[in-house]
Amino acid sequence: MALPSSSFFLLLLSLFTFLCFSPSLAEIRFSEVRNDDRPIIPFDQFGFTPTGRLELNVSHISLSNNNLDLSKVGFFLCTLDAWLHVLQQLEDGEIRCALQSDLVKPVYTFNSLKGSNSFDNLYLENDADQYNLVFANCYQEQLKVSMKVRSAMYNLDGKSGNRDYLSAGRTILPRVYFLFSLVYSGLAGIWIYIIYKKRLTVFGIHFFMLSVVILKALNLLCEAEDKSYIKRTGSAHGWDVLFYIFSFLKGITLFTLIVLIGTGWSFLKPYLQDKEKKVLMIVIPLQVVANIAQVVIDESGPYGHDWITWKQVFLLVDVVCCCAVLFPIVWSIKNLREAARTDGKAAVNLMKLTLFRHYYIVVICYIYFTRVVVYALETITSYRYSWTSVVAAELATLAFYVFTGYKFKPEAHNPYFVIDDEEEEAAAEALKLEDEFEL
Ligand SMILES: *[C@@H]1O[C@H](CO)[C@@H](O)[C@H](O)[C@H]1NC(C)=O
């Protein structure tokens, strides 16, 4: 069978592309710097519109050496492109300190402190672009800095003048999520109708599928509320708890559903084999870990201390889950192939085999698209269109749900399960042909 190995390779590849992932999320952030002598400390990233604002409140500043020229210590804003040039300038020796470059926009240099140990600063950014907020300390070994930093970046809304704490390009996300939650509510409605109409051929798994769709709709609704709360207030404490509960349940149920369908549970057989149960016993706790990691990642921002670690935990777990859910499908395909050879009902089994092969391919595509392609989109699209990667991921997920629902819907005359003699013969022929090809 020419099935899995190449796709596993793709999944491994996706792991590596992921490890250098950096998102752009910004809201109000609090960070603490302790006795730090790093020359550059990145704080946050944000896409500004022409009415961008940066509020910087720094307190508890303490410097290990007070006899230096503090104009070489301070905060600045810088686009990624400009930063690459600054690095070049530093390397060529044109400048000695990033703050001296005319490519960066100084926000506050510490010579303005004049003995004080805190400052508040409002910076107006009128050039629309994506900027990084960075702290530069051009004395490295000679100077250690401690401080508490509160940074808030936002854009003013054109008409109302309200603050919008979502980065340009992400500001329509609440609406996107809300729209998708409506779509899933619609799907849930259709599914309930189908279950009711075909109630004589409904299996347990159909109710399970219904719960997955409902959870997805609720999850998206919470995500919309969560994002719109961030948009308005800059902090992420709207419907947080509900949101995490739903994404947690959604993650577990989606993976469980893929495993259950993959094993053919309730279609092919009413029970699970031991090794299939083991897959579930691996995937469910891993989803718990993945969700905890996701919470930490969301709360601590890209430059937090443990951010990278948790991101890696999350990605590793995600990849393991994605691989694990493929095994039951592969086993089913193998069993069906063997059954097709040995028992008399070749055609029935062949049809089921085709179904499971399609399902396998679609699961692979779904996993690959939502992890690798979406990441690639995120990297190559301009910050102004960063919502497109979210839409792409949600569309792929929607297509996956619709495909699964369509292929495994309850149906009295499901071609995969009821077959007349003529088709049986044709299918048997096809199988013979296929065998010859393989030999
Ligand atoms: C932070 O600084 C800004 C700009 O000076 C000021 O308007 C705001 O009140 C300060 N916020 C806090 C929490 O100190």
TrEMBL record:
<dbReference type="InterPro" id="IPR053937">
    <property type="entry name" value="GOST_TM"/>
</dbReference>
<dbReference type="GO" id="GO:0005794">
    <property type="term" value="C:Golgi apparatus"/>
</dbReference>
<dbReference type="InterPro" id="IPR009637">
    <property type="entry name" value="GPR107/GPR108-like"/>
</dbReference>
<dbReference type="GO" id="GO:0016020">
    <property type="term" value="C:membrane"/>
</dbReference>
<keyword id="KW-0675">Receptor</keyword>
<feature type="transmembrane region" description="Helical">
    <location>
        <begin position="241"/>
        <end position="267"/>
    </location>
</feature>
<keyword id="KW-0732">Signal</keyword>
<protein>
    <submittedName>
        <fullName>Transmembrane receptor</fullName>
    </submittedName>
</protein>
<keyword id="KW-1133">Transmembrane helix</keyword>
<feature type="transmembrane region" description="Helical">
    <location>
        <begin position="359"/>
        <end position="377"/>
    </location>
</feature>
<feature type="domain" description="CAND6/7 N-terminal">
    <location>
        <begin position="33"/>
        <end position="155"/>
    </location>
</feature>
<keyword id="KW-0812">Transmembrane</keyword>
<feature type="transmembrane region" description="Helical">
    <location>
        <begin position="383"/>
        <end position="403"/>
    </location>
</feature>
<feature type="transmembrane region" description="Helical">
    <location>
        <begin position="176"/>
        <end position="196"/>
    </location>
</feature>
<feature type="signal peptide">
    <location>
        <begin position="1"/>
        <end position="26"/>
    </location>
</feature>
<feature type="domain" description="GOST seven transmembrane">
    <location>
        <begin position="174"/>
        <end position="414"/>
    </location>
</feature>
<feature type="transmembrane region" description="Helical">
    <location>
        <begin position="309"/>
        <end position="331"/>
    </location>
</feature>
<keyword id="KW-0472">Membrane</keyword>
<dbReference type="Pfam" id="PF21904">
    <property type="entry name" value="CAND6-7_N"/>
</dbReference>
<feature type="transmembrane region" description="Helical">
    <location>
        <begin position="203"/>
        <end position="221"/>
    </location>
</feature>
<dbReference type="Pfam" id="PF06814">
    <property type="entry name" value="GOST_TM"/>
</dbReference>
<dbReference type="InterPro" id="IPR054103">
    <property type="entry name" value="CAND6-7_N"/>
</dbReference>
